[in-house]
Amino acid sequence: MKRLLLLLLFPVAAFAQKTEDLTRYVQPYSGTAASTTKGALKHGSGTELNANTIPGVGIPFGMIQWTPQTQTGETKCNPPYLYRDTKISGFRGTHWLSGSCVPDYGSFTIMPVTGKLKTTVAAYAAEFSHQDEITTPYYYSVTLPADQLKTELTGTARCGMLQFTMNKTDSLYLLIVPNSDKGKGFVKIDRTRGEVVGYNPAYRIYQGSGNPAGFNGWFVLQVDRVSATGGVFSGSGLLLQDSILNQKESGAYLGFKLNKGERLRIRIGTSFSSLTGARKNLEAEIKTWKFDELVKQQKEVWQKALAQIKVKTSVEKDKRIFYTAFYHTLQHPRLFNDVDGTYPRFAGQYELSKLDKGNYYDDFSMWDTYRAQLPLFEILKPDLVNDFVASMIIKGQQGGWMPIFPCWNNYTAAMIGDHVTSFIASAYLKGIRGYDVNEAYRLMRQNAFELPPAADYQNGKGRRALTSYLKYNYIPTEDDVPFAFHRNEQVSRTLEYAYDDYALAMIAKPLGKTADYEELIKRASNYKHVFDPSVNSVRGKNADGTWIGNFKADEKSSFITEGTPRQYSFYVPQDIPGLAKLMGGPAGLEKALDTLFEKNEYWHGNEPSHHIAFLYNYTPSPWKTQRVVRQIIRDEYSDGPGGLSGNDDSGQMSAWYVFASMGFYPVSPASDQYMICSPLFDEIEISLPEAKKLKITTRRTAPESIYIREIRWNGKVYAKYDISHEMLMKGGNVEIYLFNSPGR
To answer: What is the C-alpha separation between 540 and 530, in angstroms, rounded?
Structure first.
């Protein structure tokens, strides 16, 4: 009787709470179709309309992902999978930068073909239906009706496993294709060992475009039975040999005879270092042929990763959007070393190095991810961030200069700014310091004060247009910025360099670099030199100090990066009070923000806009941040394939949603402050390092309530609209009271 009474008062869940499966909320399709959001339809065009994500299977920050392939080759802005396509041409081991507009590299594809052997894409690409697919972060499957074949795949940090199930008795051929658009690469079969090995050489993009990147995408593929036949091919021609090198449309094949219901399994090890490294990785990560057990293990990896943030709401759609966004933030940077610490030297020519500790990472889409994606992991995974920063220092030491936008394990000078500086400053200011900060400072200072020799500069080292910036304290329109992927864009460069100078100043001061600090903090105000009070906007400026004519605030301009002068006028994250003063004070800033949003000129699909909605916290009407952020959440994010507003850019677009829906955002990453907005969820629990937890509970007067009336931090009234990193990392309980109208 006593137990019955307890069960009536406290449901069974209170005694034994079942762990919720968070992976079921992830929609890997999201971003694989053209965006359907409000902002993208107005401001986006071409590839900017696509989020360019893939339904990638692997683990967080892994070396490789596995994806169904509907698009062949390694073409810029052409992801391996597009939702609109109707044919699958294989299953790719990919190094695609999630959400980017760049090419894949070092990838290879495995295609099962039943019946007669076919070796050209036109002949073997198979019709499929989305109804026959299952997509999760840790497992993918599809049934190809014409082949009566089911394919399943899963992946580890560096390896993968595929399982093929025959729905009829027939021949099954496996094609293994290095995806080189240049007709390069190597593949070799050993039928007696049930093995195929090979590589696909990586090539540079942007600076040094088309030149070897100094490493290969290596793979070793093992089959769980001896094949009946095998060989190599080029196009439709079969060759009487066991290997093929540097020929177009080439690959290897293995043939099997399988009965209905029989399964064939393959496991693949990969490496950027060597075939030996690929073997070691496979031996370490996939020791058996137990496919279902491996799937279960990888599901647990994802469950643990996603469970670091638990949200509660009765709106299932919001949970789908949140955990899909969280999944996308966990794609990059990319693990680059083998299990024994071996990795290709940065900007090298096939030389290898070896780590003493930690891991080495690459593929930092830094112009995007310094804003919110990397700061998210400064909260969740400080130890991982230490490895990220240490990787940057290694790159600077091996290449001689701190990179601007390190991808493909090389210098690129893609985009603008020098935001590795912002990232390292952000980590340092938040107490993440498991690296040589003096060496980091030396390399960052070199970028800010020195110009490389001409050949190094052309190769992507150093800040673009630094000479003009130092001479004029802005970059004049006469400097068209040669040897840059983005030419011109002088005003945007000035604004971003001013912010980066501020970031470096924040490290110079505690390190006792007084002279550097004074110079850098002065340069942090260079944004003022490109702000024209007569139009209340940033504007192109000539070397003689005159403004360019024919000014249009809401049209894309050559001196602005991927946007308009009105949008970029708010890019002063280091000094919003100073910007407000230029605009006539806090009320003037509010009016300028009102104009941007009322004219529908806010573009969420481009990262320089991501902090803007939070700037109302610096005005007399902070409640407008709460309103606008909620509107962006509703307008610019949805579930389904078209639910992301433009390129996800290695998770930055998704990281914005993760932060904003939790109720705070890092407007200036190179500080320890976050701006507050109203949380989307009823309850949020963030698991912090050292077993601490931050619990955020919203108390609403109605389901639609979004305006903050009161905040209580550990029971005490909290009157500000910003919180410090130190305060957040202590954990605790936050209660936020939301009403239908502003009142605080």
So the answer is: 7
| Calpha distance 325→321 (Å, rounded) | 6
Taken in order 415, 416, 421, 427, the sign of the CA dihedral is: negative
Candidates 522, 635, 617, 620; CA nearest to 576 is: 617
Number of alpha carbons in the 13 Å side-chain half-sphere of residue 259? 0
Tens digits of residue pLDDT in 282-303: 999 999 999 999 999 999 999 9
Cβ-in-10-Å burial (0-12, 13-18, 19+) of 278 comes to: buried
The phi, psi pair for 411, rounded to 5°, reads -75, 140
Looking at residue 45, what is its pLDDT? 64
Buried b (16+ CB within 10 A) or exposed e, 233-253: beeeeeeeeebbeebebbbbb
Q: 555-593: string of b/e by CB count within 10 Å (b at 16+)?
A: eebebbbbbbbbbbbbbbbbbbeebbebbeebebbbebb
* Residues of the chain falling short of pLDDT 50: 1-16
- Residue 649's pLDDT is 93
pLDDT for position 46: 67
Dist. CA 264–CA 222, nearest whole Å: 11
Q: What's the CA angle centered on 265, arms 263 and 269, to 5 degrees?
A: 170
DSSP 195-244: EEEEEEEEE--STTTTSEEEEEEEEEEEESS--SEEEEEETTEEESSSEE
Amino acid 48: pLDDT:
66
What length is written for the chain? 744
pLDDT at 413: 87
State residue 560's pLDDT score.
Answer: 97
Per-residue pLDDT, 192:
86
Tokens for 359, please give them.
């891991």
Do 273 and 342 touch, CB atoms closer than 8 A? yes
CA distance 370 to 405: 11
- So what's the pLDDT on residue 743? 80
The candidate with the shortest Cα–Cα distance to 676, out of 726, 725, 626, 635, is 626
Q: Other C-beta atoms within 10 Å of 522: how many?
A: 12
Q: Is the peptide bond before 333 cis (omega within 30 degrees of 0)?
A: yes
Count other Cβ atoms within 10 Å, centred on residue 116: 10
Phi, psi of 335 (to 5 degrees): -60, 135
What per-residue confidence (pLDDT) applies to 2? Answer: 35
User: What pairs with residue 676 in β-bridges?
Assistant: 664
Summarize pLDDT for 451-462 with one digit per residue, the tens: 999 999 999 999
* In contact, 221 and 110? CB cutoff 8 Å: yes
Question: The tokens of 642 are what?
Answer: 């078209």
Judging by DSSP bridges, how do beta strands 732-739 and 693-700 pair with one another? Answer: parallel
Contact 457, 483 (CB under 8 A): yes
Burial zone of 631 (CB within 10 Å; 0-12 exposed, 13-18 middle, 19+ buried): middle
Q: Residue holding tokens 């606008």? A: 628
